[in-house]
6-phosphogluconolactonase (Triparma laevis f. longispina), 269 residues
Amino acid sequence: MTIVLVHQGKPQLSTTLCDTIVKSAQKSLSARGVFTLALSGGSIPKMLSTDNMIAAFARHSIEPSFENWHVFLADERIVPSTSPDSNMLSLQTDGFLSPPSSIPPPTSYPIINSSDNTPSEVSSAYQNILTSILTQSYGKFDTIVCGMGEDGHTCSLFPNHELVRNQSDNFVDFIIDSPKQPPERITLTFKVLNEARSVIFAAAGGGKSDVLQKVFKKGEGSEEKEPSEEEPMRLLCEKDDSEFPCAMVSPSEGELLWLVDVAAAEKIC
Ligand SMILES: O=C1O[C@H](COP(=O)(O)O)[C@@H](O)[C@H](O)[C@H]1O
């Protein structure tokens, strides 16, 4: 069964997401001294604003600090670093990757991209840096935050794409024919996603309700009460992993948590 937490709206969902990341960081830092995290682009960076993260540290009575956090991209579009399509740029401008100077920042890893590099070279270079840093957390990500597109893609793993039909043993792979622009991208693979200690999905808005209806069936033990400002509604769902890439992520030994809002969950509640 998969736990799906249904929130009143995006602000409440963002609060749970930031709280879950801060808790996971504390656990990883005390167990291994580092916190390895991968973040998606799209709607995720705004949920992870510096203000939202500082508020999450405060709720846990912890001084805000991203020291010993190593932040990778769950996927990236192969575009110049100044392009508005760059996921790293939106994590820096909308997310917490560039906090005020009083807060120790995380170490973050952009893709190394120049016009001389092919997508395959960009992907191999990213895999090399990622695998070298992941040795510090025993070869696994502590936490990966995934978004979900309205077509059910996650990271840059798109429905029916070759990378989904023939899953590779790489940790990072590339595509040159993304159905969503821009076409050239690198992405974490199912291998590394499914080996993570925890994967958190965050999906908000009515545009996501059709896919969620196909993926989740509400099961016994689900709460019936409406979500409140303070508390999400907890559903225990059966997950159909036959069609959509987002549903094919199920860490074999790790935790899986889905955070959605009422609009996205409308057809499963
Ligand atoms: O293209 C992408 O889309 C997905 C979903 O985006 P969202 O705006 O619907 O949340 C995102 O998770 C991924 O990182 C991005 O490259």
About this structure: The longest helix spans residues 10-32.
